[in-house]
Known about the structure:
This protein is α+β, with helices and mostly antiparallel strands. The chain has helices at 15-22, 26-34, 50-60; strands at 13-14, 40-42, 45-48, 66-70, 77-81.
Amino acid sequence: MNGDPPQRTGRLLSEQELAKLLNISVRHLMNLRKAGLPHLQLGVSIRYDLHEVFWHIRDQRMIPSRQPDRAASTGELRLQEDRP
């Protein structure tokens, strides 16, 4: 998946299809589902709307903006801005 949201097709993906698309194991996908990944349960089948999954993952990502840095001489902790 790149940075652009997927088109809404109305098609729901199986666990195997979504795991392959995200390049993760089905077991990891199950753990993500238990942690709040949006899904539909149709009887015993689990299905995923790719558009909803995309936005959920996008909302959950963490982007570090600062990194802790210790001053060599004083040993004190200070925050240092990230550099590109």
